[in-house]
Amino acid sequence: MKIYIKNMVSIRCKMVVKSELEKMDIGYKSVDLGEVELEQTITDQERNELRNSLLSYGLVLMEDKRSILVEKIKTLVIEMIHYSDELPDVNYSVYISKKLNYNYTYLANLFAEVKGTTIEHFIIMHKIEKVKELIIYDELSLTEIASLMQYSSVAHLSKQFKKITGLTPSYFKHMKNKRRNPLEDL
């Protein structure tokens, strides 16, 4: 049996879910971002208990199929940008469509309707957060970051960075209090 959890955006979230499942003595096969495969079906009472315990951590057990699909899109984008070694070589629309086995137009319309923003904007927000992280680590040049994040040029990266943050990447790099946004807030 699979259950779907909203706001699961990090390794820590996975650890919390595993811990809560173990506390409740619910066996699981796998815990991934946004999705848990349980060993067996759980009762309504167990589902309610799990819902309440996860809620205290800001995690939401989902029931609605549309919300589940939107959460899968979000999870796919987060994994693709923040947790994979390199971004896919194909257009994001093709990648998302193939991974979820849905027509991209349908996914894009659903996402926009439910989230009030486009998938493209959601991807850009996450790419900029990743760029901030890479700038803070100070291990790569802006040229290397632009290449890693699949920007056509440093100028393109800088223009998008300034549009989203209001700052240039160079100015951000020299700020004393560099601020990043939590992934769940994007």
Describe this structure in words.
By secondary structure, the chain is an alpha+beta fold. It has two domains: 2-63, Alpha-Beta Plaits; 64-186, Arc Repressor Mutant, subunit A. The chain is 59% helix and 9% strand. The chain is built from nine helices and four strands. The protein has helices spanning 11-23, 44-55, 65-83, 92-100, 104-115, 119-137, 142-148, 154-165, 169-174; strands at 2-6, 28-32, 35-38, 60-62. It has a four-stranded antiparallel sheet with strand order 2-3-1-4, with helices on both faces. Strand 2 (28-32) and strand 3 form a beta hairpin. Helix 3 (65-83) crosses helix 5 and helix 6 packs across helix 8 (154-165). 22% of the residues are buried. The mean pLDDT is 92.
Fill in the keyword field for this structure.
186 residues; Arc Repressor Mutant, subunit A; four-stranded antiparallel β-sheet; 4 strands; 2 domains; Alpha-Beta Plaits; alpha+beta
